[in-house]
C-alpha cells in the first residue's frame, strides 16, 4: 500500500498499519485490498506464527464500534470487548452471553478480545456462538457497496470459514426484539475450571408462562464443525410443564443435531455424553 495514498494520521509512521477513526475511512482502506483486520488481536496474533503477513487495519479506534444499544433490538458493536459485555446491564435473556463473556480466557483476554473477533475467527469452540444462536442473532456486514444482514447461523459456514466478503467489516451483532424474552444460562466444560478451551458448551434460553414452557432455544458448541441449535430438544420441551423440562431432554434428541469428533481435548464419545448433561444443566439454569 503506497504511503502517499493514506491519510497521514492513520499511518503511525508505518505504511503497513492503520487505525482509522471512522467506519467510512476503514471501508475505503479495506476496499483497496491487502489489509488484515485487527480487533483485540487475541486470535489473530497467536494464529499468525512468528510474523503477521500483510498490512494491519486496527478497528479499535473506529467510533461507535464498541457500543451496546438496546432500543427494541439489542445491537452490540463488533469491537465490544467481552469485559464490556459482562459488565453491561442487560435483560435476563442475554445472561448466557454475559456468562460466556466471563469465561472467554482470563481477564486480559476479556479486556482485549471482542465479540466480532470471536465470530469472524469462526472456531467451533468459540464461546460466544451458542448464546447468540439461542438468541436468533444476526450479523450486520458493511462494505463500500452497502450493508447486509445475515443470520449468525448462515454467517458461520465451517471451522475458520465465514460468509464475510473481501472489503467487508462485521459492524454489529443484532439480537431481534422478539428473541429478547425469557431467561438464559450458559454452561461450559473444559479440562479445568478457568482459562480453558471448551470441550463442550451449551446455552439455553427458556420462556415460560403459567408453569408451561412457551419457547425454548438450545445451542451446543464444540460438538460439531459449527455450533448447532437442537430442534428436536426444543420441540420436545415446548408446551410441556416447566417442572418436567429437564427430564424431557432425551440423549437421542441432543445427539441428532451433533457430530462430535475426537481431538486432543476429548473423545467424540465423551463429548456426546457431556453435551447431554450440559443441555440438562443449561435448561435447569435458565429455569432457576
Ligand atoms: C489465552 C487465550 C485464551 C482464550 N480463551 C478463549 C475462550 O475461552 N473462549 C473463546 O471463545 N475464545 C478464547 N480465546 C480466543 C479469543 O480471545 C476470542 O475468540 C476473542 O473474542 C477474539 O477477539 P479479538 O478481538 O481478539 O479478535 P482478533 O484476534 O483481533 O481477530 C480474529 C479474527 O477476526 C477478524 N476480525 C476481527 N474483528 C473483525 C470485524 N469486526 N470484521 C471483520 N473481521 C474481523 C480478524 O481479521 C481475525 O481474522 C482465547 C485466546 C487466548 C489468546
Strand elements, count = 14
Shape: globular
| CATH domain class name of the largest domain | Alpha Beta
**What sequence of helices (H) and strands (E) makes up the elements?**
EHEHEEEHHHHHEEHEEEEEEEHHH
Bound small molecules, which ones? flavin-adenine dinucleotide
**What multimeric state do the chains show?**
single chain
Helix-residue proportion: 25-40%
Task: Explain briefly what this protein structure is.
The strands form 4 sheets. The chain has a 5-stranded antiparallel sheet. It has a 4-stranded antiparallel sheet with strand order 11-12-13-14. A 3-stranded parallel sheet has the order 1-3-2, covered by helices on one side. The protein contains 11 helices and 14 strands. With 288 residues, it is of the alpha+beta class.
Amino acid at each position: 500500500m503506497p504511503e502517499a495514498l493514506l491519510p497521514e494520521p492513520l499511518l503511525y509512521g508505518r505504511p503497513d498499519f492503520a487505525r482509522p477513526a471512522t467506519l467510512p475511512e476503514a471501508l475505503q482502506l479495506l476496499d483497496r485490498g491487502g489489509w488484515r483486520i485487527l480487533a483485540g488481536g487475541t486470535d489473530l496474533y497467536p494464529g499468525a506464527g512468528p510474523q503477521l503477513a500483510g498490512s494491519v487495519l486496527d478497528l479499535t479506534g473506529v467510533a461507535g464500534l464498541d457500543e451496546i444499544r438496546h432500543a427494541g433490538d439489542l445491537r452490540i458493536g463488533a469491537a465490544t470487548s467481552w469485559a464490556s459485555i459482562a459488565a453491561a446491564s442487560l435483560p435476563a435473556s442475554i445472561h448466557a452471553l454475559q456468562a460466556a463473556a466471563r469465561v472467554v480466557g482470563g481477564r486480559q483476554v476479556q479486556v482485549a478480545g471482542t465479540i466480532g473477533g470471536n465470530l469472524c475467527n469462526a472456531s467451533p469452540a468459540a464461546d460466544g456462538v451458542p448464546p447468540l444462536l439461542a438468541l436468533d442473532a444476526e450479523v450486520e456486514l458493511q462494505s463500500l457497496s452497502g450493508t447486509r444482514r445475515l443470520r449468525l447461523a448462515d454467517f458461520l459456514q465451517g471451522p475458520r470459514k465465514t460468509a464475510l466478503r473481501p472489503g467487508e467489516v462485521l459492524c454489529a451483532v443484532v439480537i431481534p426484539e422478539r428473541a429478547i424474552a425469557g431467561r438464559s444460562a450458559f454452561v461450559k466444560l473444559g479440562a479445568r475450571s478457568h482459562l480453558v478451551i471448551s470441550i463442550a458448551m451449551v446455552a439455553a434460553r427458556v420462556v415460560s408462562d403459567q408453569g408451561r414452557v412457551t419457547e425454548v432455544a438450545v445451542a451446543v458448541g464444540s460438538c460439531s464443525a459449527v455450533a448447532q441449535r437442537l430442534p428436536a430438544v426444543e420441540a420436545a420441551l415446548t408446551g410441556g410443564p416447566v417442572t418436567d423440562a429437564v427430564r424431557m431432554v432425551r440423549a437421542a434428541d441432543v445427539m441428532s443435531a451433533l457430530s462430535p469428533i475426537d481431538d486432543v481435548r476429548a473423545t467424540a464419545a465423551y463429548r456426546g455424553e457431556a453435551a447431554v448433561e450440559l443441555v440438562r444443566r443449561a435448561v435447569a439454569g435458565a429455569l432457576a
